[in-house]
Specification:
336 residues; alpha+beta; Hypothetical Oxidoreductase Yiak, Chain: A, domain 1; Ribosomal Protein S8, Chain: A, domain 1; two-stranded antiparallel ribbon; EC 1.1.1.130; 3-dehydro-L-gulonate 2-dehydrogenase activity; oxidoreductase; Mal/L-sulfo/L-lacto_DH-like_sf; 3-dehydro-L-gulonate 2-dehydrogenase
Length: 336
């Protein structure tokens, strides 16, 4: 494993993205988001996504020169076309626009169509919470897991993000509709480890914790079995409806890589207009205290709530431990 400090990682990613053809501002933004995701422990959608993103840019699947175009404005709702531009830039700008609408209306909804992979969806929930806003966000994807009762890939894993702000530790949920993402399977396999619980089906049709076996069959397990499958379908339908864009089965036909042509929804809420920031803080503090005093299970680990581990990670100054092969691959891109 390679040991790298945060500043070195961010600077290296910045060089890679400049070399790939991104402008200075976009390269700096994407490098920061990828580095932060890595620092927060989400290597699969941080440094792990860099080689694939560079490949997509070089293929023309991500248009680095594209900009957001307004499609429709309807009070607190806006629809934007991403024109297959940089997914991180599109998502940050949609989040910012949603916050502006929320300041005006109490709630703002930005629906984005024909964008590209937003990488780690939680980045935008954290960004909103750090600015004092609550959020509900999600994206649809190409078909990458079976619907409940199917063996073929027929629905997206359609990640969902929710956030409630607090200056000393917000609540931030970032979850796919699959029990584990393909990125998590990859990082677990590279470590030579098994998943902590069943994550999909092997070649024999039985549930397994072997990430390589699941990667081979591509039969991810929906979170909550039929419930996760149903929620994935509804998130897909609502994303396509609100963004006037493509549902998963139409994204499948785009052929611009993972996430190309997806729809994303950014709902932002201003607590200052919904009882006040102090009331919001009291809600979060009450929930966290209630959970912290709950009796832990047989594992002896602390009771978890969304965002707690990331909040601790963000305050650590410890160097980052990266997969050797992946770090060397990124360094090679910086030298190319």
């Amino acid at each position: 494993m390679a040991t790298v400090d945060f500043a070195t990682l961010q600077a290296t990613l910045h060089r890679v993205l400049l070399e790939a053809g991104l402008g200075p501002d976009d390269a700096a933004l994407c490098a920061r988001i990828h580095a932060e995701s890595t620092r927060d422990g989400v290597h699969s959608h941080g440094i792990g996504r860099i080689p694939r993103f560079v490949d997509y840019v070089r293929r023309g699947w991500v248009d680095v020169d594209a900009s957001l175009e307004p499609v429709q404005r309807l009070g607190a709702i806006e629809v934007l076309d991403g024109h297959f531009g940089i997914g991180i830039r599109n998502a940050i700008r949609a989040t910012e626009r949603g916050m502006a609408l929320a300041r005006e209306h109490g709630m703002g909804l930005v629906a984005l169509r024909d964008t590209t992979h937003w990488m780690r969806g939680g980045s935008y929930g954290w960004h909103a919470a750090e600015q004092g806003f609550a959020a509900i966000m999600w994206t649809n994807t190409e078909s990458c897991m079976p619907a409940w009762g199917a063996t073929t890939q027929s629905i997206g894993n359609n990640p969902l993000v929710m956030a409630v702000p607090h200056r000393d530790g917000p609540l931030v949920l970032d979850m796919a509709m699959s029990q584990f993402s393909y990125g998590k399977l990859q990082t677990t396999r590279r470590k030579g480890e098994q998943l902590p619980i069943d994550g999909g089906f092997g070649a024999d049709g039985e549930l397994t914790r072997d990430p390589a076996a699941i990667e081979a069959t591509r039969r991810l397990l929906p979170t909550g079995y039929w419930k996760g499958s149903g929620l994935s379908i509804m998130l897909d339908a609502l994303a396509a409806l609100l963004a006037q864009g493509r549902p998963s089965h139409d994204i499948d036909r785009v052929e611009r890589g993972s996430g190309g042509g997806s729809c994303q929804i950014f709902m932002l809420f201003d607590p200052e207009q919904l009882g006040g920031r102090a009331a919001c803080d009291a809600i979060v503090e009450g929930i966290q205290h209630h959970l912290a005093t709950a009796t832990s299970d047989e594992s002896g680990r602390a009771v978890r709530w969304p965002g707690a581990s990331t909040w601790r990670q963000r305050r650590s100054q410890a160097p980052l431990t990266l997969d050797d092969g992946l770090w060397e691959e990124v360094l090679a891109l910086a030298r190319s």
